[in-house]
Amino acid sequence: MVNRYFPAVWSVLSGDALAEQVLSQYAFEVTPTCDLHTTSVNDTYHVRAGSSSYYLRVYVHGWRELHDIEAEVELLNHLHAHELPVAYPIATRDGGYVLPVHAYEGIRYAVLFSAAGGEIREENDHRSYMYGRLTGQIHVCADRIPRMSKRLHIDHGHLLDSPLRSVAPFLAHRPKDCDYLSDISRSLKARVDELLLKESPQYGICHGDLHWTNVHFQDDDAPVLFDFDCFGYGWRAYDLSVFGWHLGGWAWSKAEKANRTRRWNLFVRGYEEHRTLSGSEHEALKVFAPIRQIWRMGLHTAGSERWGRNWAKDEYFDQEIKYIKEWIDHYRVL
After folding, report:
1. Model pTM score
2. Could you tell me the CA-to-CA distances from 183 to 2, 153, 177, 187 in Å, in that order?
3. Tell me, what CATH number does 52's domain have?
């Protein structure tokens, strides 16, 4: 039987309907409001109940399996129980955390999170150091949680193989660039394998997305980390590399390079107050930044059916590949 409705990739859920059908399952003292906050990899709604704020994440259909989301909830509850400053999941009146939503395109899942205190603040030296300290605390604390087998691994397949498959159709008219990305990925994989083992504590639970817009800072620069959607098992050096990769954006001026190096070093110094990196891990930090860039290209291209392709012009790929080459050359990665 032919469906009388046209197929959809993604639907925008009504905030009012979410308040009525999903938020009604929580023990709010006053009736909450629910407004769409952002649409990105997932959809986030700002929930207000009196003077209290929360954030409802509605995972996009097909992005995460139920067991992936349950593992994220388990990790955050573990970190929160150990009094680490993270945005943590809120339980329903029945004690559950993950609620199914029957959207037009299929089942999606919703989780309500506490609001992260503070706000996104400008990059500076002290905040870089404090962010690193919190990351070290989280890695050490995460090593105490029983192994969650049903969670993704942030390994070569996730960071390079799958992204390259997504990127390849977009570079069909640029075979030299496609070959370059394939060749450089093989070299980067080999370098990582020379430096690191897939064993604890070098390899373990990672946040997966430690850039500047996933952390809030209080007035005293105390950080609060949120958005663990990309968490999984991976090399800890990769987790730390994301911070350095994101610092300073695309800037390569002498001053910006100096800022990046100084703040990245401060981030690592803060981290090592809780877990000391090996010499090989220090070396691997800069190897993972171009890997992160390739992963991001894969994220963008894989999501193009939902986000559109207007951005996927030659200028975009010129910029991305140029960044990879400049990073590898400047930091002598290979």
Report:
1. 0.95
2. 46, 23, 10, 6
3. 3.30.200.20
How does pLDDT run across 90-120, given as a tens digit for each residue? Answer: 999 999 999 999 999 999 999 999 999 999 9
pLDDT tens per residue across span 173-196: 999 999 999 999 999 999 999 999
Q: The domain containing residue 250 runs over which residues? A: 125-330
> How far apart, in whole angstroms, are the C-alpha atoms of residue 253 and residue 267?
21
Asked if residue 1 is part of any domain, the answer here is: no
Question: Tokens 């308040």 label which residue?
Answer: 19
Q: What is the spatial distance between Cα 46 and Cα 181, in angstroms, rounded to a whole number?
A: 39
Long-range CB contact pairs, 13-20, < 8 A, 24+: 13/43, 13/58, 13/101, 13/103, 13/108, 15/45, 18/45, 18/56, 18/58, 18/101, 18/110, 19/47
Residues 207 and 256 in one domain: yes
